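Complex 382.
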Amino acid sequence: MASTYHTLIIGAGINGLSTGYHLSRQNARGIGLIEQFALGHDRGSSHGHSRITRSAYVNAHYVRLMQIAHGESWPQLERDAGRQLIYPTPGCFFGPPDGKYESYAQAVEEVGVDVERLTPKEGRKRFPHFRFENAAGVLYDRTAGFVAAAQTVQSLIRLVRNRGVEIRENATVLRVDLTRDPIRVETSVGDLETERLIVAAGPWASRLLPVLKSRVAVARQTVGYFQLAGAREQGAFPVWGYLLGKGDMGYYGLPQFGRDGIKIAKHIVSGVDDDPDDVPVQMPSAAIDDLRAFIEEQFVPPVERFIDWETCLYTNTPTEDFILDIHPDHPNVVIGAGFSGHGFKFGPLTGRVLSELSLNGKTSIPEFEAAREMFKATSQRG
Ligand SMILES: Cc1cc2nc3c(=O)[nH]c(=O)nc-3n(C[C@H](O)[C@H](O)[C@H](O)COP(=O)(O)OP(=O)(O)OC[C@H]3O[C@@H](n4cnc5c(N)ncnc54)[C@H](O)[C@@H]3O)c2cc1C
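Predicted structure with flavin-adenine dinucleotide bound:
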């Protein structure tokens, strides 16, 4: 006999876990969560110690959603978890005149959040780590910070477990038959049945749902950790992002947290579709050299030493907009996918969206409903 659930979630990254957290908060019963690897693994997109959070965004929809994430979703999760998960840290977002800088500046001004435009000269005073030589301007985001990512994942695992969500780890979903009622879920540890399904499978999502095949592409990112000479003496290190144009590659970074060295990575969003199971064993030297060259060009303190590297997967849509939608052909299936390189900071909010879409077919978040077209699985944007 197959085990039967009311709602089964596939994937225990930030999105699947946060969805389980919200379903259990709403007293939903019969919830299962299935994960192909051990909980907290480092093969997907949600591992590592830190992620950036910010209000500065490319359009006003995201700025408004971030207001809810910062004002409601994270504080609620921190209360339930009984620990601090967001660490406020000044944010600094800059880029060349032909990049996305102006769109970011206009979006924050439209919504009216605590983000100030600085000239490069003012920027150098406020953020002495940077040269800002070719910058159109500098956005000083006072709402920014970093998320304690690993602690968030661990807190969510504990919360969903304590609230009765049945978690199966090291169990892979091999196939889903959405035409059956209840839905049939074939797994490496036996068959399951569920009335409702929520797919939050990150880079593997399109293997389970063909509707996503033409919509998402996987890009493996290399993250470098560097020690900068004298960086500690120059004041608190910000979270930062270098904004280039559409389909182009920017860079971003965070202060030291949880391990040695500042974190820096290049934001690769187009031109690749990597196999998520193809785990690199050797250090990607060219990528590390590129990160070092960026630091040498844009930063004041020189690199003292390279410390370490890791990789992590983006699941990109053509526009970098998330997919948060009911399956176009199956109303009992909800999809959370394509969280690209910026989904973590929204985690507790997107989990709420996915849980409400599954329970009610719509959400109680007017700002999401107003932007819903942007998040459709079949969106033609981009
Ligand atoms: C280098 C890097 C830096 C980033 N920096 C930031 C940042 O600063 N700020 C920010 O907001 N965001 C950032 N992001 C993006 C953010 O981390 C991701 O958007 C987010 O983690 C996506 O989470 P997810 O739950 O959708 O996917 P995942 O974390 O990949 O979770 C999906 C889960 O589903 C499981 N799964 C898949 N298929 C199956 C199956 N068939 N059966 C069972 N289980 C399955 C996987 O094993 C995985 O655990 C960054 C991402 C990377 C890679």
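The mean pLDDT is 94.
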